Amino acid sequence: MAFDLDLIKEAYKNMPGRIEKAREIVGRPLTLAEKILYSHLDEGDPTKEYKRGKDYVDFRPDRVAMQDATAQMALLQFMQSGRDKTAVPSTVHCDHLIQARVGADKDLQEAINKNNEVYNFLESVSNKYGIGFWKPGAGIIHQVVLENYAFPGCMMIGTDSHTPNAGGLGSLAVGVGGADAVDVMAGMPWELKFPKLIGVKLTGEMSGWTSAKDVILKVAGILTVKGGTGHIVEYFGPGAESMSCTGKGTICNMGAEIGATTSLFNYDTSMATYLKNTDREDVAELAESVREHLRADDNVYDNPEKYFDQVIEINLSELEPHINGPFTPDLATPISEFAKKVKEEGWPQKLEVGLIGSCTNSSYEDLTRSASIADQAVSKNLKAKSEFTITPGSEQVRFTAERDGILQKFDKMGGVVLANACGPCIGQWARHTDDPEKKNSIITSFNRNFAKRNDGNPNTHAFVASPELVTAMAIAGDLAFNPLTDSLTNEDGEEVKLDEPQGIQLPSDGFAVEDSGYQKPAKDGSGVDIKVKDGSDRLQLLTPFDAWDGENLTDAVLLIKAYGKCTTDHISMAGPWLRYRGHLDNISNNTLTGAVNAYNKETDKVKSQITGEYGAVPDVQREYKAKGIPSVVVGDHNYGEGSSREHAAMQPRHLGVRAVIVKSFARIHETNLKKQGVLAVTFDNEADYDKIQEDDRFDFVDLKDFAPDKQLTVEIKHKDGSTDTIKVNHTYNENQIKWFKEGSALNLIKKIYAN
């Protein structure tokens, strides 16, 4: 039985009429993305055509999902909304706070002991406000959503950038900041600029070592980390039809690495099969009844260039396995060229650790394909030369894999099964190493590989590949090993070659689980007390941000001019800092500590304009805050790429940063800044970035006239008395300007409900 079946019935009941109305209005066939967008308008039936990449549109998502690290701040904000229950079905998933140390059972128990205060808070808030609660160990949010909540044609948002994983089941699922989730849970519409569309036509069929992972690794190489920004990526074609549902999920999951709003596939037989195998036959039957509306119109597939803003074609029969990295997920190299590149670039050839799993590749199929390689290591008398870890995606997957003897194959190979959680993928990894600063190489089946992402070591060269390729390379212990062509020497001195991986899409005996980890909320939460300890260093109730005083922002100092890539990991690191995700003041002590200062090329070392001395970024900013001095952050392209974490916007706001001026923003981070009342603008002339000097001060001379589609003027005052006047652009609409004026979007919500 599916969750929220009445919701799904209602969505499918409204869909045909709304799609037909939209088709009449736009006067042409519709893509799948457009069908879902137009059938989830806040206004109900469509009344006008929306311009891609231009019009802001209000939507009504079907549901919200939150992981424990981001849920803390989202729920702390929701508690201020005035609602006594969420307006849409919502869930919390405890997957981020479990650190990988020695193995699943001990790590899970240690996490419960260390984070009990946070788990109790999340459980109590969920119970009070009608939110489904998935306990620690239940699994990673995206795999659990795929198994239980996603459905074809659904629109959902989640407080994690890899929410698009649900696109593997035909859902239009978008990663957002917590403030967006609060809007929807509070019954407000969710605003999004109507996305542009990229079509990816898949022909042929995969075989051998090539997997779904290689599709997105290839696409990342084509589009780069910002090529999908402002776009939905829609996959179609005979190659798409030949893939498993969880393989599709892998592709959609990593669409976050190209900046895409989301990615999705049309409804097909593989999705129907997956729904039935996850005990949702009723959803499959409902989907079949509206099947024609859960895919693009035929004309779109026949002539994709007419209906998408960009079209990419990939022949799966010719696609090689790829390895992406290091330090960025879009540096794509086919396996046939990788060994040469390792030597040319001087990357550490010795492979120290192979890690499989995470939200991207932790399905039953992924584990079986990898286990077929692990099994060969044992049968061919090969000993793994690298440390090897396995992270199942959910308790259902883990339990079933153990029942079917899959996990035992990893154990015989020498692998360590970790808890059903994010672990090393997000820096929650107590890595076993003699020299934590040593230049070294690891390879994972995860999604992100920014510097310091996995283990905090800037010298770790992290590469991304399919789980079966990771398993093979962990056996070899050699980054230059190509399992398609190379042999290995076994313990008897014999030359042996690994056979192609063999996988099973779904368990022949069905999925099984003793305790899924789900906890249903109270029907009436009015008597439930929310658990927050007095004086806690983990949780802190929020104080609303101050509203704008209506005056021009003047004499703001430069806090930092960030050089090069500045992701949300650089702005608000994860790893050990996850413990403070519910305490805004404490976690603000990591603000921008990973960003590289353009003037000295160092991290966490900026000049104070009060003392003239250099200090840690948060310390210098706290000095400014104490003296009431506003500050500005300057950045490069795609500023704020990566995780959806709104802390990267809330922390600077809390510390007194008033504006961020960059060459370009990543979508989610720009929205998060707007939601928290920070002025987010871009250089009209990118070369003006070079005019910014270390001791500069900024006057926003016409902020009082802040209006949509109107540039702002900034006067930059240099220490020598000279000035530069520049123009900056913004994407604020009327409603978003209200957020700025009120001090935050949440302040506006409270004002609306108060009236």
TrEMBL record:
Keyword Metal-binding listed: yes
Residue span(s) of domain Aconitase/3-isopropylmalate dehydratase large subunit alpha/beta/alpha: 34-477
Keywords carried by this UniProt record: Iron, Iron-sulfur, Lyase, Metal-binding, Transit peptide, Tricarboxylic acid cycle
Enzyme category, top tier: lyase
GO function term, MF aspect, one: aconitate hydratase activity
Pathway assigned to this chain's UniProt record: Carbohydrate metabolism; tricarboxylic acid cycle; isocitrate from oxaloacetate: step 2/2
Cofactor(s) required for function per UniProt: [4Fe-4S] cluster
Catalysed reactions, as listed in the record: citrate = D-threo-isocitrate
GO CC annotations on file: cytosol
EC number: 4.2.1.3
Origin: domain of life: Bacteria
Domain Aconitase A/isopropylmalate dehydratase small subunit swivel: 559-686
InterPro entries: Acnase/IPM_dHydase_lsu_aba_1/3, Acoase/IPM_deHydtase_lsu_aba, Aconitase/3IPM_dehydase_swvl, Aconitase/IPM_isomerase, Aconitase_4Fe-4S_BS, Aconitase_4Fe-4S_dom, Aconitase_dom2, Aconitase_mito-like
Record NCBIfam families: aconitase_mito, PRK07229.1
Protein name (Swiss-Prot/TrEMBL): Aconitate hydratase A
Source organism of this protein record: Salibacter halophilus
